[in-house]
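Pilot study result, target chain (115 residues):
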Amino acid sequence: MQAENEKEVSIQEKHDSHLLDTAAWQDVNDYAEECKRRKRLSLAFRAKEKRRHFQVEKEQAKSKIHQQHLDTLYRSEDARYIEMAKLKEKARIALEEMNRSPTCSFGPNPFSTLM
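Predicted structure:
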């Protein structure tokens, strides 16, 4: 009877040991799966951040190009108005010269100051 009890205890200990080994392997497998899941999430997050940074850089480049376009447009308009003002000033000076000089003059060219 004692041999039978020892055999039963031995079987029970082996069964408990096997259960512990199985639980340990399950814990290891669960940990490995959790590590894989976290790595996938990390990669997904980095990919999402990279796309967001690319989009922000693209918008900044587009804004910079638009600002350069506006600057060029405004400079060309300024140059046009400056040229018009210079022409108006030359015309005003020419009219003053014509009003100052006699109507029929064989003297120097009244527009020589403009050339």
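One observation from the pilot: Helices lie at 2-100. A full batch analysis is planned for the follow-on phase.
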